[in-house]
Design brief:
alpha/beta; 535 residues; 20 helices; 6-stranded mixed beta sheet; 4-stranded antiparallel beta sheet
Length: 535
């Protein structure tokens, strides 16, 4: 439990918040009925915070011990540059206001108040029953609490309560029977703050959903809500380099052109968001004020039409993209016909990097083999973007590289796309997976308490064996795996695994279960000394 925020805590908070938004992304998208029912609020919030996390990672890569103010400012600027949609710009501005008050890491209540005030200031016509209301409630509650953790917990509690009241404040929410999507996203971010400062185990989406019943997803899942008649036709977003003195005139011009106007930023850099019928005039207003760039214009009706046509897209040329670490694993995937995106052991690929990797393939059909459950949120956001571009894409829920190898073994580009995806998914699902890891410190696990240096045997993601040495633990895990049956054992040795380990395990498998075939590869991965797959 922390007494004050510091730069590493801000980084932890950002990572936990990104994971929480990733878990809730589709749920938040389904809640999205205001200001435009275009079903992308969760995705926009996720992409905005992903940009903040990348900016923070860059700071830590460049500086060994960045200060709190430096880290908070980097996250806020990263969010501003990468902000998507109305909700993303507001979240970025909230983070900017927060960062402005975080010179002292113990003054969380003041920072939350600064964030709320800054978020309100970015919106041309603030509306209650939205993310703004939730932010204000969190800030007010934190002022009456003691200590960093107490302030975070009270802010989170008040935010949840404020979220449940949003349908009483905004009729469009009441009519749809849902809470505000942006407010739901901020609740996830504040819940991650509690986890970061208190050491609380992150709350899963099911548990949080139960806390927020009955309105979180009632009556909204699976519904298409195209913008109604009379709503502006275009969403226009751009970054703008301009002096502060240019902003009043810009706000007046854009307010006269449309609605949902949000301008966040400062110090000469702004993120401009507006819904208009005349997209060209909105961009021209930016040109008059300064230098607009990264201009994104979305036609709501065409976007809705593309969404309805996604399943009917006929495309040619198929690529399979595998995300792996280790030169040996990369070579195995390439030999099996996959394009490889080599992941940094310390940083998972972002949604933008996944999109860019698919673009490099030049295919109109793509299958993503993630080989890591933590990549699913980023992959989901990437897949949404690629589908909007007309790429037919499937994200296979492979949780380990051995499942990815099993999927590649049955891949056949000559089959229809759906048939190929079903075959690959079935092969991956039929492959039980395990891995060995070394404990970094004392911790509670499903197999008991482990100490630093213990060798952990994880089966299907859960710790099943705690051992003192690599070979003994590997043998114990292998015995448990083959006791449940199987025909083929695949061993993938990591960079630090002893060369004789594979021979010991293969000999043991053949001695105990002669009917089982066993193969071994040198994967070269750093994190796991050994991966085991049983098909």
């Amino acid at each position: 439990m922390l007494d004050t925020l510091d730069a590493p805590a801000v980084r932890t908070w950002c990572r936990l918040a990104l994971a929480a938004l990733g878990q809730a992304r589709e749920e938040i998208d389904a809640l999205n009925v205001y200001p435009v029912p275009d079903g992308d609020t969760g995705t926009n919030l996720y992409l905005t915070l992903e940009s903040a996390a990348e900016a923070l990672d860059a700071v830590f890569a460049a500086e060994e011990h960045p200060g709190l103010a430096r880290a908070a400012a980097a996250a806020a600027r990263g969010a501003l540059v990468g902000a998507r949609g109305n909700s993303g710009v507001i979240l970025a501005q909230w983070l900017r206001g927060l960062a402005g008050e975080l010179a002292d890491g113990s003054r969380l209540a003041e920072a939350l108040d600064g964030g709320a005030r800054s978020a309100y200031s970015a919106v041309a016509q603030p509306v209650e029953g939205t993310l703004l209301t939730v932010a204000a409630a969190a800030a007010a509650a934190a002022k009456d609490a003691d200590g960093l953790t107490g302030q975070a917990q009270e802010a989170y509690r008040a935010a949840r309560q404020a979220l449940l009241r949003t349908p009483d404040q905004l009729s469009v929410l009441a009519e749809a029977g849902v809470v505000d999507a942006g407010g739901r996203g901020l609740v996830a971010v504040l819940g991650a703050l509690v986890d970061a400062v208190s050491g609380r185990q992150p709350m899963g989406p099911v548990a949080l959903r139960r806390e927020l019943d009955p309105l979180v997803v009632a009556g909204c899942e699976g519904q298409e809500r195209p913008p109604g008649p009379g709503h502006p036709a275009f969403e226009v977003i751009y970054l703008l380099e301009a002096g502060d003195e240019r902003l009043p005139r810009l706000r007046d011009r854009l307010a006269g052109l449309g609605d949902s106007l949000v301008i966040g930023g400062g110090d000469g850099l702004w993120n401009v968001h507006v819904h208009v019928d005349d997209a060209g005039a909105a961009v021209e207003a930016g040109v008059e004020a300064g230098r607009p760039y990264r201009i994104r214009i979305t036609h709501f009706a065409e976007a809705a039409a593309r969404s309805g046509e996604r399943e009917e897209t006929v495309s040619h040329g198929r690529a399979v993209l595998s995300v792996v670490t280790g030169s040996g694993l990369a070579q195995l995937c390439e030999q099996a016909g996959s394009v490889v995106l080599s992941a940094d052991p310390d940083r998972a690929p972002s949604s933008a990097e996944l999109v860019a990797a698919v673009h490099r393939c030049g295919a109109r059909e793509a299958v993503l083999l993630l080989n890591d459950p933590e990549l699913r949120p980023a992959a989901g956001a990437a897949a949404d973007q690629l589908r909007e571009e007309g790429v037919r894409i499937a994200v296979l829920p492979t949780r380990s590289p051995v499942q990815g190898l099993a999927a590649l073994a049955v891949h056949d580009a000559g089959r229809r796309f759906d048939e190929d995806v079903v075959a690959m998914t079935s092969a991956a699902g039929a492959t039980r997976h395990a891995e060995l890891a070394v404990a970094e410190g004392e911790s509670w696990t499903m197999a008991g308490v482990c100490q630093a240096g213990d060798v952990l045997g994880l089966i299907d993601g859960d710790v099943a064996v705690i051992g003192r040495d690599l070979t003994g633990t590997a043998l114990a895990v292998l015995d448990r795996m083959i006791a449940a049956g199987g025909e083929l054992v695949t061993l993938v040795l990591g960079e630090e695994a002893p060369a004789e380990l594979a021979d010991r395990l293969i000999a043991h498998a053949r001695r105990t279960r002669p009917e089982i075939d066993a193969v071994a590869y040198h994967g070269g991965q750093e994190a796991a000394p050994l991966l085991i797959g049983v098909e």
